[in-house]
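pasting for the record
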Amino acid sequence: MEPANEVVGVVLGSRDSAPLDYWIGVEEGKMVQLDDLVVLETETPDGTPLTYYGIVDQVTKRFEGNAFDTDAFHVADHSLPVEVSYAAHVQVTRLDPEVFVPPHPGTPAQVVHGEAYQKALYFDRMDRKVPIGLTRTGEPIYANLEFLDGTRGAHASISGVSGVATKTSYATFLLYSLFHSEALGADAINSKALIFNVKGEDLLWLDTANSRIEDDARLQYQKLGLPVGPFQSVRIYAPAKKGVNTLMPDTGGRAIGVQPYVWTLRQFAEQHLLRFAFVGAEDDRAQLSFIVTRVEHRLAEVAKASKPHEPFLTIDGTRVSTFRELVELLDNALLAQWVPHAAPGTQDAFRRRLYHSLEHIGHLIRGDEAASKHTVDWESQQVTVIDIHNLRAAAQMFVVGAILKRAMEDKERKGTAKPLMFVVLDELNKYAPRTGWSPIREVILDIAERGRSLGVSLFGAQQTASEVERRVVANAALRVVGRLDAAEAERDEYRFLSGVARVRATVLQPGSMIVAQPEIPTPILLRFPFPAWATRASEANRGAVDERDLFSRMQD
């Protein structure tokens, strides 16, 4: 049953009231907490009804009338009579109508729920609402889909301390809410999600129900209008295992139901992927960019001249079937032929980095027929999980860059924002750092700046937003923080938080987040439910997994 609205106090006359903030004195026996929604109903001097909606962002208590700190001891032993002041500061979120005058001292203040609560946070003005969590009192909190699907904005930035802030858990919850609520409507069935599994195997079980979910979490999903269960329509990819000829996924706890992924040599050439093979190698040299670009164009010409659908390359009559063969051919003959005027030192730097990339991504680029059947395909299912957690940093960079580049080019070719695509990427500060340059950084920046018009929305997670390219963070319509390091909380990237909210962010517990969105003038603290999908092998119903995967193999 919904809690009733109740008068808890009045606007104070001992402290200044302003149109956008004021203090209330709390009546004896009543309680007001941070995040409570407060409403005042009054009139303007001409008799026009005026309603102030606001949220409590600070609560204080003090003795009134005592002159010395030691008076507190006398009050405690009942030798000194004193009155207690219990006051709450209210940040106004909405005025109806928008008449900006201060509230009159003595005006009764109510803590509200239901319809007034919806108005206080502008939920009544959101035509397409996405449930994003619950208040401390169990009220649902929404985001406007128009700021996630590109209509008026896109992208979410999620920051917090690793292992405590539950950043990836919240990003996947946002996806679950988008796909399983009514927000997307008819667009939901065709919308896509690309999820990069960066750490551990947490995201390799999204298609499996969580066997440890409890009744409290089920009730939370019910309040949000969401079903309790795993993601539907999921395909999971893992990199091909290194050092074996047979294509098999390189995973740990889950191997059945996971598809291996590689690139053919032809795709490597056609899609201009050489630039991503150099990310994360030795020191960066600007002179290399000319050689990389030149070699990419020559490889693309070779691929274009080859027979359609051949996974290998034929260069000057030589069949190239492995990435190692391509590297050695470039080293021994092609480099001098294709870029004859490059300085010898720059050519040597190119060779060093090329061999460095061979060590880390050579097993992901093949020229055999099997490779043609094991590239990442996100068209046939709603959610595509791409595992990279077992790869070295250089290989992770290659996979992320190559897939995001192809996704953006596919959207550009289609020329329409729909179907929508949502991208979940953790450790964003590694892929789009504030300083330095890399081709992946440029791809992510392109998504941040142009993704909105193409229907691509990035849910980026990072420990420190201060280390992410500014324009990526600035373009995020939804800004979310979990537990923050105290020093990080003082950085400019968190200016959207009030002083009290910054302090609260340093003590948040897992499952609690502070969310800022464009239509609500103050950040809101929320809680989100325990995942209804498994996040580790111990939570998965293994019998259901094995049965489903067996059926899948029979269908194939």
